[in-house]
């Protein structure tokens, strides 16, 4: 019993150390500071340098994991918030509208996404595979008209990145209205009529204050 208790404490301590390292890497990514020594990362995480190598072989591996975990976390949250939506066009739109609002409400997480650039479209984690799935389901349901799935996904990723960059550059811009306008344009490009695209983008979203507590 004592051995199991001690083992549990060690596992929890290792998990806390790993979480601290990933969090430090995500902060550095958000600041655009990846060319830093491992010592600086461990100081930011408030752990010893030796502990770093118990979890990661290099800082490049740490930064890759930090991006993947941020993308996967946000993607999982979008899954939860769209799980009960039957219309795949609405599910796609809601995910994009919420992600658009993320840029202003959670700028650090937004900057982690932006640090990916168009590699975001090719990631196996987070938003890209989910957006691809949503588009495919909408096509199969006859809601979207898409000739090239990879191109549609790249257009979606580019729109996410461009919107985020604009919102950071123009802090007074209305993020909700901008996100909805971009979503409406994407829906139009995927064959949704103008009046239907406008209707979809006027639908209520989940309470963003509740979403904020989940993000936090």
UniProtKB/TrEMBL annotation:
Keyword Electron transport: no
UniProt xrefs under InterPro entries: Homeodomain-like_sf (IPR009057), HTH-type_Tx_Regulator (IPR050624), HTH_TetR (IPR001647), TetR_C_40 (IPR049513)
Domain HTH tetR-type: 15-74
DNA-binding region, residues: 37-56
Gene3D superfamilies in the cross-refs: Tetracycline Repressor, domain 2 (1.10.357.10)
Region forming the signal peptide: none
SUPFAM superfamilies linked to this entry: Homeodomain-like
Keywords: DNA-binding
Keyword DNA-binding carried by entry: yes
PANTHER family for the chain: ACREF/ENVCD OPERON REPRESSOR-RELATED, ACREF_ENVCD OPERON REPRESSOR-RELATED
Name this protein carries in UniProt: TetR/AcrR family transcriptional regulator
Source organism of the structure: Streptomyces machairae
Lineage, uppermost ranks: Bacteria, Bacillati, Actinomycetota, Actinomycetes, Kitasatosporales
């Amino acid at each position: 019993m004592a051995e199991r208790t001690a083992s549990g404490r060690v596992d929890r301590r290792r998990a806390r150390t790993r979480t601290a390292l990933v969090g430090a890497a995500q902060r550095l990514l958000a600041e655009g500071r990846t060319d830093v020594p491992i010592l600086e990362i461990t100081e930011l995480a408030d752990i010893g340098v030796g502990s770093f190598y118990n979890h990661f072989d290099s800082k490049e591996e740490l930064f890759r994991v930090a991006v993947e975990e941020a993308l996967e976390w946000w993607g999982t949250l979008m899954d939860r918030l769209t799980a009960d939506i039957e219309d795949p066009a609405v599910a796609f739109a809601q995910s994009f509208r919420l992600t658009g609002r993320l840029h202003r409400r959670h700028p650090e997480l937004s900057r982690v996404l932006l640090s990916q650039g168009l590699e975001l479209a090719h990631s196996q984690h987070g938003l890209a595979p989910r957006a691809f799935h949503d588009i495919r389901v909408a096509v199969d349901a006859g809601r979207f008209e898409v000739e090239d799935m990879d191109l549609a996904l790249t257009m979606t990723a580019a729109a996410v990145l461009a919107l985020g960059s604009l919102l950071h550059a123009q802090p007074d811009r209305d993020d909700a209205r901008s996100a909805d306008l971009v979503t409406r344009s994407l829906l139009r490009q995927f064959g949704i009529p103008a009046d239907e695209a406008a209707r979809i983008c006027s639908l209520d979203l989940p309470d963003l204050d509740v979403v904020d507590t989940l993000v936090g």
